[in-house]
Amino acid sequence: MTERKLQSILRQLEIEGLRITSQRKMLIRILIEQKGFLQTRELYEQMNRMFPGVSYDTIYRNIRMMRDVGVVEQFDFDDGVKFKIACRTHHHHHLICLGCSKITPLPFCPMTMIKVPSSFTVVSHKFEVYGYCRRCAGKQEKKEKLQFDLRT
Known about the structure:
Layout: H1 2-15, H2 22-33, H3 40-50, H4 56-68, E1 72-77, E2 80-85, E3 94-97, E4 103-105, E5 128-131, H5 134-151
Parallel strand pairs: 3-5
Antiparallel strand pairs: 1-2, 3-4
Helix pairs in contact: 1-2, 3-4
């Protein structure tokens, strides 16, 4: 599955007119094999092991370029921007657990419920909901209670 997904993404990059370099290939492979989200720093650390001397700027520029062509998705967390391979099967949005990074697709698009003024043309939208899954919610409640107990 990983190899098929890699080849599909590489074809898309070629269609977009982008060169397929060994570094880009490895960056995509890392993102495919990672089930959760990665920060640019984490991508840099993994890439630097395989390509000693690769610059942080190279990783950042490549990840942004892949985001711009729709191969990679960007998510904003409290601790910074993170990336993952884009969900490409169909248009959907996500529920994202802040505890374990589990992603649950929303079964509908919330844009259908928004009345957009006729004076505005929507060209794109993004809708993510951040919170805690059932398993992590219990852990979060215990953590908050402990913090409260320590303050009192």
